[in-house]
Design brief:
- With 428 residues, the chain is α/β, with parallel strands linked by helices.
- It has two domains: 124 residues, NAD(P)-binding Rossmann-like Domain (Rossmann fold, 3-Layer(aba) Sandwich), CATH 3.40.50; 187 residues, Dihydrodipicolinate Reductase, domain 2.
- Strands 14-13-12-11-7-10-9-8-15 form a nine-stranded mixed β-sheet. Strands 3-2-1-4-5-6 form a six-stranded parallel β-sheet, with helices on both faces.
- Helix 6 runs antiparallel to helix 10.
- The longest helix is centred in the first third of the chain and has 21 residues.
- The N terminus is likely disordered.
- Nicotinamide-adenine-dinucleotide binds next to helix 3.
């Protein structure tokens, strides 16, 4: 139900802002501080508009002074908020490494919706496919690379950022090689195959002075950001429970079914619930307990489990109960249960069509107030890549850091360990 009349609940009314939360950054930047800054800049814009001269095109009569009544849309005036995109040469240049399903179907098309990023290079072991895609996206033939000549990316000044979209077992090697080639790197989730690789990747970023961001696209998506803000502002009172599933049916052959390529449901899809639990709860778990199922009659699951169920305990007492699977119909959701209300994001994790509902206890034991929060749906990959381009341009730290990727891998590792041993694993 969409609420059309004003209620106290309207305070939850969605803004389209995607400012960082302190849950994510630990920076302590609050929404109130952000709004203060935003309204301060609004005041500046307002004063410029009332005091400034009116622009006219050559040969046109000067516009009427500000004090006179003006027409509703004078032809000589520009819209006040014209959003003129960056010239092409000022956009950051990207190389996409690994032209599989995600790169071809989501990332490359997303450049059409980017304002600060453009694709200038492709890296692939399949020259025919790379050549066809280069033609479609206007990539020059001498900017098609393969895994043999990958290190010569260093010689291409027009490549600022390298996006690693390879199987998980290859993330560390190609991230480190790209950093050593002097490039900033956006690496797909999960960050790597294990914690040792995470440490090597972080050390390489440190040593080269280049930025390393992990591709947690939901941090750049308005509805998930709204949930982060609501939880940080304690709109549901004290949080008690987080319940999540991220399940799909994976057809063979698939990199996700290979242990050698670091596949498996926890790192691939479970990591969304692990990451969401952090941006909702704002804490690291102190203990995990997991159990898994490997059917003996399904050849897809000889190397990785079909389903894993895991519970995470947090210092404040919140319990997170999550499941992930490669053998079910799609279920990609989370529910945040607090003292005074419930947030349901269903679906929460796909590329489009997310849906957020908030149910809060009514006043004086009245019926619960229910609201669907509708925000503009955006292209997650365009938003994420433009964020990284801005970080490079303005030399700022990305929201989704290597430290966040490493923290998630620590939990993935603990879940795998618990499922293997049948015992809880402490994370303190
Ligand atoms: P995919 O199998 O479709 O693509 C993998 C690519 O790697 C292919 O182009 C393949 O040719 C190439 N490759 C190079 N060397 C390989 C080797 N030795 N073995 C197998 N493939 C090799 O996979 P995908 O779905 O595009 O996933 C790629 C990465 O993106 C994974 O890390 C995955 O976790 C991540 N991903 C993220 C999201 C997201 O929403 N952020 C969604 C899907 C996948």
């Amino acid at each position: 139900m969409n609420l059309s009349h004003p209620t106290p609940f309207d305070r939850l009314e969605a803004s389209q802002t995607v400012e960082p939360t302190s849950h994510e950054t630990g920076s302590g930047i609050s929404r109130r501080q952000f709004m203060k800054t935003a309204s301060a800049s609004g005041a500046v814009i307002g004063s410029v508009m009332t005091a400034g001269a009116v622009a006219t095109a050559p040969g046109q009569a000067p516009a009427a002074p500000e004090t006179q009544q003006s027409a509703p849309a004078p032809p000589e005036r520009q819209a006040a908020n014209l959003d003129i995109p960056e010239p092409v040469e000022k956009k950051m240049g990207w190389a996409i490494v690994g032209l599989g399903k995600l790169a071809v179907e989501e990332i490359l098309p997303a450049f059409g919706e980017c304002s600060g990023s453009r694709v200038v290079a492709l890296v692939s072991g399949h020259p025919d496919k790379a050549g066809r895609l280069a033609e479609v996206y206007g990539v020059a033939p001498d900017r098609i690379y393969n895994y043999g000549n990958f290190d010569t990316l260093a010689d291409a000044d027009d490549i600022d950022a390298v996006y690693i979209v390879l199987p998980n077992s290859m993330h560390a090697e190609y991230t480190i090689r790209a950093l050593k080639a002097g490039k900033h790197v956006l690496c797909e989730k999960p960050m790597a195959a294990n914690l040792e690789e995470c440490a090597q990747m972080s050390a390489a970023a440190e040593a080269t002075g280049r930025k390393l961001m992990i591709a947690y696209r939901l941090h750049y998506e308005p509805l998930n950001r709204k949930v982060m803000q609501m939880c940080e502002a304690k709109k549901l009172g004290k949080l008690k429970l987080f319940v999540s599933s991220n399940c799909q049916n994976v057809e063979s052959p698939n990199i996700r079914l290979s242990a050698k390529l670091a596949g498996g449901p926890v790192g691939d899809v479970g990591v969304y619930s692990i990451n969401a639990a952090r941006y909702v709860i704002g804490e690291e778990p102190v203990e995990v307990y997991a159990t898994e199922h490997r059917p003996d009659n399904d050849p897809r699951f000889t190397e990785v489990p079909e389903s894993v169920s895991y519970t995470m305990k947090y210092p404040s007492g919140v319990l997170a109960q999550c499941v992930c699977s490669f053998g079910t119909a799609g279920s990609q959701r989370y529910e945040v249960i607090g003292e005074k209300g419930v947030i349901v994001m269903d679906p929460a994790f796909p590329y489009r069509g997310l849906k957020l509902t908030v149910r809060r206890q009514g006043a004086d034991e009245g019926p619960p107030e229910i609201a669907d929060i509708n925000l503009r749906q955006i292209n997650h990959f365009a938003s994420e890549m433009d964020h990284f381009s801005k970080c490079i341009k303005d030399n700022i730290t990305p929201r989704t850091t290597a430290a966040m990727g490493t923290a998630d891998m620590r939990i993935v590792h603990a879940i795998t360990e618990s499922a293997r041993t049948g015992k809880p694993v402490s994370l303190v």
